[in-house]
Each structure stands twice: as structure tokens, then as C-alpha cells.
Amino acid sequence: MKKEATTEEKKKKINNSTTTRNIALFSNMTGNIYETVAVLSKRANQIAAEEKRELHNRIDDFKNSNESVDEVFENREQVEIVRRFEKQPKPTLEAIEEYLNGEIYYRNPAKETPKEDRLEQLEEEVIKEM
Q1: C-beta separation of 82 from 109 below 8 A
Q2: Are residues 97 and 14 in contact, defined by beta-carbon separation less than 8 angstroms?
């Protein structure tokens, strides 16, 4: 059986340096480069929030109940965790990689057709009649 890669394994595969990209690839899925940028920025914000939450959870494990806010004690494990997070690829790079690999789901409600809206209305009417 094929084992799925963890998020850390995926992050290791992402190139952390600046690379030249073909802009035409970015507008293939959405048809509009500006819409693509909006999708990528939203996904990058989601990734950054997840990473921030994960970092805080790991650092919270080291807090002692006896320590006050003024007493900051840094141990090696904390420093190593922070350094590892700093070496990870930026959320924007991760979002771009996910987008180019087709791993991002997005939808634009403004582009949904009236036919789809009508189908939803019919479904709601059928449900109400039951």
C-alpha cells in the first residue's frame, strides 16, 4: 500500500528558493491571473494560521505553571523548534505548489450559473414538500 506523505514530508519537497514561474500556468485553472492571486493569497493565509497554531502548541508544552510572564526561560528544545519553523518554506510557496499540483479546491460564487441556482431552488422545494 502507498503511504500518504505527511505535511512535513511535503514541505521538505518544496523548493525554498526563488524560481521563475510561467504565468500562463497560473491562469489555466481560473482563467484569470487576478483570481488566481486571490485564491493563492487566501490559501497562504490559511497555511500561515495553521503553522502559527502548531508552533504555539509546541511551545506551550514547555511552559511551567510556576513561570511568570517576566521570566522567560529558553531551553534548547524550544530554540530548535523555532529554528525548524523558520527553515520551512514560506506559506506563499506552499500555496503555489499546491495550486500547480491541483490540490486546492476553490469556487467563485459570482461565476456560478443561474441554472445551478435554479437546481438548488428545486431541490429545496422538493425537500419542503416532504
Answers
A1: no
A2: yes
CB proximity list for 90: less than 8 A, separation 6 or greater: 16, 44
Cell (9 digits) for 113: 450559473
In this predicted model, what pLDDT tens digit does every residue of 22-74 receive, in sequence order?
888 888 888 889 999 999 999 999 999 999 998 888 878 776 655 554 445 55
Give me the helix-helix angle, 33-60 and 91-100, nearest 10°: 130
* Residues ≥6 apart with Cβ < 8 Å to 98: 43, 104
CA distance 74 to 90: 25
| Residue 31, domain member (yes or no) | yes
pTM of the shown model: 0.67
C-alpha span between 4 and 84 (Å, rounded): 22
Got the DSSP string for 62-106?
T--TT--SS-----HHHHHHHHHHHHSPPHHHHHHHHHHTT----
